[in-house]
Amino acid sequence: MSKGLLHHIELYVSNLERSSEFWGWFLEELGYVSLQKWEFGQSWRLGETYIVFVQAEERFLDIPYHRCRVGLNHLAFYAESRLHVDEITNVLEAKGVNILYKNKHPFAGGSAHYAVYFEDPDRMKVELIAPL
Length: 132
Hints:
By secondary structure, the protein is of the alpha/beta class. It has two helices and eight strands, in the order E-H-E-E-E-E-H-E-E-E. It folds into two domains: about 1-60, 2,3-Dihydroxybiphenyl 1,2-Dioxygenase, domain 1; about 75-130, Roll (2,3-Dihydroxybiphenyl 1,2-Dioxygenase, domain 1), CATH 3.10.180. It has helices at about 15-30, 80-95, and strands at about 10-15, 35-40, 40-45, 50-55, 75-80, 100, 115-120, 125-130. The longest helix has 14 residues, at about 15-30.
């Protein structure tokens, strides 16, 4: 293993079924494969890195996630190309997913960044960016 590479990310979600459905198609589109599934969680792997989604306990659901609070702001993934960003954008729109910064899309991150920004079911921001 190379020092500093990300090993895994674990995210607690408000509704595991809804989040697994949302993230499953997106991650699999990016080449991730289903790794594990159990009663309160599911994970996907790409190479040596994996992402885990775990159902949050009922007692912790009183305060919803917000990316502007202390903690995670967003996850960013590379697309294959600008065309791939466009294709995923079309799928997101067809699924009724909230696309962020529509008035600046696909250059919301600046003229050098071709990307789509959107929200997952818990309103976590996700970015799909084309390589330069």
